[in-house]
Amino acid sequence: MYISKTKFLHSKLSKGINGGKCSRMVEKEYKIILNSKEYEKIKKTYIWDEKYIQENYYYDTKNLDLYKLGITFRIRKKNLKYTVQIKLNNKTNECIYKTKEEYEHDINYIPLCVNSEQYNEINEYVHGKLYLIEKLVTKRRMKQLSECSAIFLDKSFYLERHDYELEFEFDNNDEECLNEIQKLGLSFKLKVSPDGKYKRFIKEYISKYKKGGK
Asked: How far, in Å, CA of 186 to CA of 44, rounded?
């Protein structure tokens, strides 16, 4: 399985909750929202190294305080393994690509709620319980470009809708990814930094269930 050099170099293992492992990683990526025709074209362009399905279960306070702070708290299910993933946006990044700090903890199941005080990464921002909102299911294809970069092609399903997304993860040098984006004829889409999966998910959730709320 691909692990970017950026994540590897910045990964730190420590003791997590219940004695489990906790790791910290730095994620650098370009995100591009696709339409269905672009998705099908790119799907046929590459010989993909991996194809798999992953489920993201999102948690927040009843007032969506983490969302308002730009923090993602989710449990990811992949290959019958469950992992808590906490993403903090890097506000200092002025580039088109996104930079995030990501923390991971082991967990054995999908709870209906979690105690924020168990996670040092977020307990300075929120207190009390985080509740399961809903899940987002992604059909993902991965192509490794080199030791330090990879392409991910996603089709995601959530709240009775679906969308398409292309992600490029890389180390400090993004030249290889930019060249690949240019070959695909998608450079024009880099002018706008799109919403990530969680933000798109929450916007749809608010539209469906919290109309008029913020």
From this structure: 16
Domains delineated in the chain: 5-209 (2.40.320.10)
| Long-range contacts of the stretch 101-104 (C-beta < 8 A, 24+) | 101/24, 101/25, 101/26, 101/27, 102/7, 102/24, 102/25, 102/26, 102/27, 103/22, 103/23, 103/24, 103/25, 104/22, 104/23, 104/25
Confidence check: pLDDT of 18 > 50: no
Identify the residue whose tokens are 């990964």. 11
Q: Are 43 and 36 in contact (CB under 8 A)?
A: no
Helix (H, G, I), strand (E, B) or coil at 37: helix
Q: pTM for the whole thing?
A: 0.85
Q: Give pLDDT, residue 4.
A: 41
